[in-house]
Amino acid sequence: MIKIIQLTDIHLPANETDILYGINIHSAIIKIAEKISQIKDIDCVIITGDIANAGDYTAYISLDKALNKIEVPIFWLQGNHDFSEVMLQVSTKVKIKSEKCFAIKNTKFILLQSVMRDEDDLSLNKGRGYLFNYEMSFLKRELDEDNFDNCVIALHHPPVLSNSWADRRILDNRLEFINLIEQYSKVKVVLYGHQHIAQQTIINNINYISSTPVSYHYNPNGVRFSLLKNIHGFGIIIIDNEGNVNAENVYT
C-alpha cells in the first residue's frame, strides 16, 4: 500500500498578511501542514503546481518553512502562476524536491511540465497547458521501463473535463496524453490541479484526481467565475496492494 498527500493550487502570496478571496493562505497552509503531520503512514506529498500566487521567491521559502514538520519526502511541480527560474533559484534553499521521476515502494512517480509561456508577454504564463513533444517522449520512455508495479503521473493542467466554465483552461493535447497512458495498465492515478475543483474521474481504470485546493474552490455549477465558501484543504490518495485506488478530501 502507498499513501499520498496531494496539495494543489496553494497560491501563496509573498506577504504573510495578504488575503486572497477572503483567505489568509499563510494561515491556511500552516493549519493544513499541522493536520498532515498527524496522519500516519504517509509515503510522500505531491504538490501539483500554483505554489506561489505570483512566482515570488519568498513564497516558496515560506511554504518550505510551513511544511517543515512533515517528515516524509515532498515534491513539487510548476503551475502557471509559478516560474521555473525562481523555483530553480530556490531549490538549494528548501527541502522540497523537484525530481521529475522517482520510485517509492515500487510505485513510479512521473511529474510532468505542462506550463506554456505567453508568446505576447514572456513575463507571463498561459492559462491553458500543453505537453510538448520532449515531455511526451520523456513520459513514454519512463513508462516503457516497466520496472515498477504501479505508476502515478502528476501535472498541473487538467487532462479531463469538469463540465464547468473552467474547462477553457484545460490541457490542450489532453487526448494525446490519455491515448498514450492508456497503453500502460500500470498507470493507476493521474494527479492534477489548476481547476480549483475537487474531482475524481475514472476512465479505463485510470483515476484522474484533483483534490480540493489549498486556497479557494471554484463553484463548478457557476456560469462564470465564482467560489464556494470555506472549501479548501488537501487530498489523501491510497493505492492498495492489489492496485485499487481510494481518494478522499480533507477540508480545513
Tell me the overall shape.
globular
* Class derived from helix and strand content: alpha/beta
Rg (C-alpha, Å): 17 Å
Overall pLDDT level: 95
Distance between the termini: 26 Å
Largest beta sheet, briefly? Answer: 6 strands, mixed
- Number of contiguous helices: 5
Helix/strand order: EHEHEHEEEEHEHEEEEEEE
What does this 3D model show about the protein?
With 252 residues, this protein is of the alpha/beta class. Helices cover 20% and strands 29% of the residues. It contains 5 helices and 15 strands. The chain has helices at 25-37, 57-66, 84-90, 133-145, 174-181; strands at 2-7, 44-47, 74-76, 101-104, 107-111, 115-118, 121-129, 150-154, 187-191, 199-203, 206-210, 217-218, 227-228, 233-239, 245-251. The protein has a 6-stranded mixed beta sheet with strand order 4-5-8-9-11-10, covered by helices on one side. A hairpin with a 5-residue loop joins strand 14 (233-239) and strand 15 (245-251). The longest helix has 13 residues, at 25-37. The radius of gyration is 17 Å and the shape is globular. The protein starts with a strand and ends with a strand. The mean pLDDT is 95.
What's the structural blueprint in terms of helices and strands?
Blueprint: E1 2-7, H1 25-37, E2 44-47, H2 57-66, E3 74-76, H3 84-90, E4 101-104, E5 107-111, E6 115-118, E7 121-129, H4 133-145, E8 150-154, H5 174-181, E9 187-191, E10 199-203, E11 206-210, E12 217-218, E13 227-228, E14 233-239, E15 245-251
Parallel strand pairs: 1-2, 2-3, 5-8, 8-9, 9-11
Antiparallel strand pairs: 1-14, 4-5, 6-7, 10-11, 12-13, 14-15
